[in-house]
Design goal:
Elements: E1 2-3, H1 8-18, H2 27-40, E2 43-46, E3 56-64, H3 66-71, H4 76-90, E4 94-99, H5 105-117, E5 121-122, E6 124-125, E7 145-150, E8 156-161, H6 164-174, E9 181-190, H7 191-197, E10 199-200, H8 202-216, H9 222-230, E11 233-247, E12 252-260, E13 267-272, E14 276-281, E15 284-288, E16 292-297, E17 303-304, E18 314-320, H10 329-332, E19 355-356, E20 364-365
Parallel strand pairs: 2-5, 3-4
Antiparallel strand pairs: 1-2, 3-9, 6-10, 7-8, 7-9, 11-12, 11-18, 12-13, 13-14, 14-15, 16-17, 16-18, 19-20
Helix pairs in contact: 1-5, 1-8, 2-5, 4-5, 8-9
Length: about 375
């Protein structure tokens, strides 16, 4: 398939959805990618399995403050320099690149990077959503972990670290000197390993679901069609009563309370960090990371980020199943509640105890067990 400028709005909406309330603002990146594809033409999108097995692929994206990135907009140079530096260091030219994460702004920056590099885009990513840390990917395991970073002023560095956690620490410590954000290329590996280990199909899925979500608020039956296609569950509709934010050095995030639209005695508690990470319906665990938890404006069904969430908003909270790659216990340990500074609540109780029936005016209806898949 090919991505064109006409696809960008749908892809941007899909990136917001998979941001799970985080991943950075996409509006400026959406405009940029539309201009890039208008100027350079359609971008080929390929499956990793269709590339020569031993050919080289890498993930490209940005790391650092998305707020500063909006103020100092990225250009081609940061991402091209990072990718070419990684190529030179490992001695193997890239035949394609993949977004580092499909959620949030990196879902779009990966597209722009492929176009700027003149390479196909791999239909996949390393997270299946947005996560805040570089060690929260499904492509960990090789040592040393090699990454190239390039800042907007032209500085470029190659980092070789013992593992993903070490890379995360070193890059975060370097960001102030890099101007708060930088282009990043990492996970240089063969197409065969990408086909086996990556979260495949995430770009096309974001494009499809983003289009359905964009139309869901205005088309009859659009919300139900989206939920079916996404294998999503609507958990709760109501008014935001309280938002408490914690910006201490130990933890960035907070908690929100939502009063049910039909049953005022019922409350949803949402814990959030960079993304929404846990939802408790009257104390019952109904969604938790790595599930994709999304707060939607109840009228328009547009995603609401953790930064935008405000008292008195009417919202609907939905859960999309986590990508199946995160079922691996070793991988799941990287993205559990503990990694966000929250205590584990024990085994998942089955996240579909309370759902919203869109055909019944918001009445509660039982649903099947939670599904897991990409």
């Amino acid at each position: 398939m090919e991505l064109t400028a006409g696809d960008v709005a749908d892809l941007a909406m899909g990136a917001q959805l998979f941001g799970s309330g985080g991943g950075g603002r996409t509006d400026a990146a959406e405009r940029m990618v539309r201009r890039v594809l208008t100027h350079l033409g359609p971008l080929p999108v390929v499956a990793a399995a269709d590339l020569p097995r031993d050919s080289s692929v890498a993930c490209v994206g940005a790391v650092g403050s998305s707020t500063v990135m909006v103020e100092r907009l990225p250009g081609a140079e940061e991402f091209v320099r990072a990718a070419r530096s990684l190529e030179r260091h490992v001695g193997s030219p890239l035949v394609a690149v993949q977004p580092l994460e499909i959620g949030g702004v990196n879902g779009l920056l990966g597209v722009a990077a492929a176009a700027w590099l003149g390479l196909p885009l791999v239909d996949g990513d390393a997270m299946g959503r947005a996560f805040p840390r570089l060690d929260q990917t499904v492509l960990q395991g090789r040592s040393p972990v090699v990454a190239a970073v390039s800042d907007p002023t032209g500085n470029t560095a190659i980092l070789e670290c013992l593992d993903g956690a070490a890379l995360e620490r070193v890059v975060r410590a370097s960001l102030p000197a890099l101007g708060a954000w930088a282009g990043l290329a990492m996970h240089h590996d063969t197409a065969a390993r990408y086909a086996r280990c990556s979260i495949n199909g995430s770009v096309s899925r974001a494009l499809t679901l983003g289009g359905l979500l964009r139309r869901a608020g205005s088309e009859p039956g659009g919300r139900e069609a989206f939920l079916r296609s996404a294998r999503a569950v609507s958990l709760f509709r109501g008014r935001v009563l309280e938002v408490r934010r914690d910006r201490s050095s130990e933890r960035t995030g907070g908690v929100a309370s939502v009063q049910h639209l039909v049953d005022p005695a019922r409350t949803l508690r949402i814990e959030f960090a960079d993304e929404y990470v846990l939802a408790l319906d009257d104390g019952v665990d109904v969604a938790r990371v790595p599930d994709i938890i999304c707060g939607l404006d109840d009228r328009t069904w547009r995603p609401i980020s953790v930064e935008e969430l405000a008292v008195n908003e009417m919202i609907e909270v939905i859960r999309l199943p986590a990508p199946s790659r995160w079922d691996d216990p070793e991988l799941r340990d990287r993205v559990g509640l503990e990694t966000y500074g929250l205590a584990d609540f024990g085994p998942d109780t089955g996240a579909a105890d309370h759902t919203v029936d869109h055909t019944g005016g918001g009445a509660d209806a039982p649903a099947g067990g939670r599904g897991v898949g990409e």
